[in-house]
Amino acid sequence: MRAVLRQPELDAAFKELVLTLPSETYLAEQLDEVDPQRIHAVREAMREQLARELHDDWQWAFESHRYNGGYQPDTLPAGRRALAGLALTYLCLDARSSGDAVWPGKAYQRFKDADNMTDRFNALSALVQSGHALATPALARFYSLFKSEELVLDKWFALQAGACDRSGQILPAVRQLLKHPDFNLKNPNRARSVIFSYCCANPAAFHRADAGGYVFWSEQVLELDAINPQVAARLARALDRWKKLVEPWRSAAREALVRVAAKADLSNDVREVVTRSLAD
């Protein structure tokens, strides 16, 4: 991986693509039996090893690709921004393990000084995904800057709902996001940015040992079903692959599906999804 990162003949966008690990969802799809927490633990251990072992290389990549002149929506600078963002994420991740305050501080400064959304959001994401304390003021600042931009605000919500779950903190955070003044369950994009980001794109946070994620899922499917059955049906598919889960997740997921299916006035859209899932 070091050879790829340092190879001068390779395009920055290609490097970023190659060096980005497969998602936990993709890894789970390759297995006959799925242990969500083991997948998360192994993938995070690999990310931490890459952050530690390639620290100097990530630093080189960031410093070499951070300046791209005035913003241009072209392929070359876009690739350079992407690689700089990936490098910053790994540097902040390593800082979490080592206790170093320098790189999180640089990420926060880049977040404040960025002249384009990509660099600003990449820096914010690096802080959030590494779980650094500076993520809190950065998130507040981002919200104050873009609270009137609906699509940007969707990204702000999704980033938090999809953050790395290290101590079971994501589900309580998601429940708080549902109480945010700018969250509206009747807005499909806003519902996707929070609920779908958690249930469908954050496996380790969703597949909790206490089944709290499944309880949350069933609550949201039922609540959405009364508002927008089509969106609720798409959310219901988050447990399509429940039979591949190892215990205790398999039994807990089935219980959640049964709970949804038991609702008397369930829409045809959602009933079709959960009935088929239970029968398959």
From TrEMBL:
GO terms for molecular function: alanyl aminopeptidase activity; zinc ion binding. Residues 1-279 form the Peptidase M1 alanyl aminopeptidase C-terminal domain. Keywords: Aminopeptidase, Hydrolase, Protease. Gene3D superfamilies: Peptidase M1, alanyl aminopeptidase, C-terminal domain. Transmembrane segments: none annotated. Its EC number is 3.4.11.2. PANTHER family: PUROMYCIN-SENSITIVE AMINOPEPTIDASE (PTHR46322). This is Aminopeptidase N. The gene is pepN_10.
